[in-house]
Amino acid sequence: MTFTWFHRLGSPPYVYGLAQRLAPWCAGSALLLLLAGLWGGLVLAPPDYQQGDGFRIIYVHAPSAWLSLMVYTTMALAAAVGLIWRIKVAHAAAAACAPIGASFTAAALVTGALWGRPMWGTYWQWDPRLTSELILFFLYLGYMGLRASIEDTQRADRASAVLAVVGVVNVPVIHYSVTWWNSLHQAPSVMRLAKPTMATSMLVPLLIMLLAFTLFFVAMLLVRLQAEILRRERASTWIREALKR
Amino acid sequence: MREFLDMGGYAAFVWPAYAVTAAAFLYNWVGARRALREARAAARRRLAAGEGA
Amino acid sequence: MTPTRRRRLILVLGILAGVSIAGALALNAFRRDVTFFFDPTQVAQGQVKPGQAFRLGGMVKEGSFTRQPGSLEAHFVVTDFAHEVTVSYAQVLPDLFREGAGVVAHGHLDRSGTFVADEVLAKHDEKYMPPEVARSLKRRHGESRADTNPPAGSPASGS
Predict the structure, then answer these.
(1) Contact C83/C43 with Cβ under 8 angstroms?
(2) B13 CA to centre of own chain
(3) Domain ranges for chain A
(4) pLDDT reading at A1 higher than 80
(5) Nearest to A50 by CA among C91, B2, C133
(6) Looking at the complex, does the CB of residue C73 fall below 8 Å from at least one CB of chain A?
(7) Within an 8 Å CB–CB cutoff, is residue B53 touching chain A?
(8) What is the ipTM of this complex?
(9) Per the CB < 8 Å rule, is A189 touching C126?
(10) Would the pLDDT of A230 be above 60?
(11) Pairing mode, strands C115-123 and C84-89
(12) Are A239 and B53 an interchain contact pair (Cβ–Cβ within 8 Å)?
């Protein structure tokens, strides 16, 4: 069975051109959605019956946390594809994911701490959710550190790919930590099989922000992916043409 | 406007949270573009040096 | 899929499975030490080592909050609707502390079985709604679990 699109995705010049063309659109729509989400979340949504206007931190905290998990999963998937099929573009994608995921994991941890202080009464607790998210942050750092420490790109790709795959076990742990164990962090309001436990007027801006953050990640991934592809390519013909654009 | 900035008394937590997130966006925006810029420059250098990039 | 790729796929899946099993075994073995808080039922079952500091989690029982006027020391009951523990705490309570709401307290049991807390954190649920919706819910269900009023004598009630 020939998956033509799959094979094309393994071709560096094809992916480079695709990324170059798609990135601005993703960035532009991310910006529009961000503005809409900020307006909806900060202005239109009513205050919460318990947390008042303090709950509005959710509009930056939850999407950051979502990205931290989604980006790691993407990174691990790309790494696995790179390992199994030995596709350079896949390794390039995994490498591109890491700094994006790490920065939003840090944002999730800090915004979470800022939210926890007034609502729970503490910036930090070693509860299952917070602890496993912190571990995720260290996994990202470890991945980037491992890459940086290995000179040869191919060996760096493979070693860090194993780390990415091993670490992906943490992702379901983070998500289910609040249901599997007693924790301070509450259960999911949106990422659940039942109906969301949030009033629609509050939920809609959150969904917009989730989409906005996701599109921003895709845009940044596509930009970094171009850089990572260039670093791994030796063939001159297509690069010469690509650099003209 | 003042009420908006006050965030119901939670301003000291809400606005820094938004600022930190904005910093993450900025880091990514600047960082990704710089990474591409440098990779392109490096590729041009390799081509000029006749390495076949 | 070529045999080589199949081998690599199996290797990757094997690594994944191995790490998952190792992780599950480790977490299971350390279950008690990994427990973030014990609920009143677990305390009643003696799952906490005597004399040890631990975290107690549950719901603040409605009507159980008392505080001597002029003093910070407060007493309230934490319940999981099967067992109860009386808690005493002498510091400022968090803003979201409410009867009928969740709480996680750190401290130890004294000889009389009262939990002497050195830290009380408010635990809130995953529900978000505007005040009007909460009020209409309360009207429909009477004094519901989602109590919007802080207990009398607690800092947030202004007394």
Answers:
(1) yes
(2) 22
(3) 22-187+198-244
(4) no
(5) C133
(6) no
(7) yes
(8) 0.94
(9) yes
(10) yes
(11) parallel
(12) yes
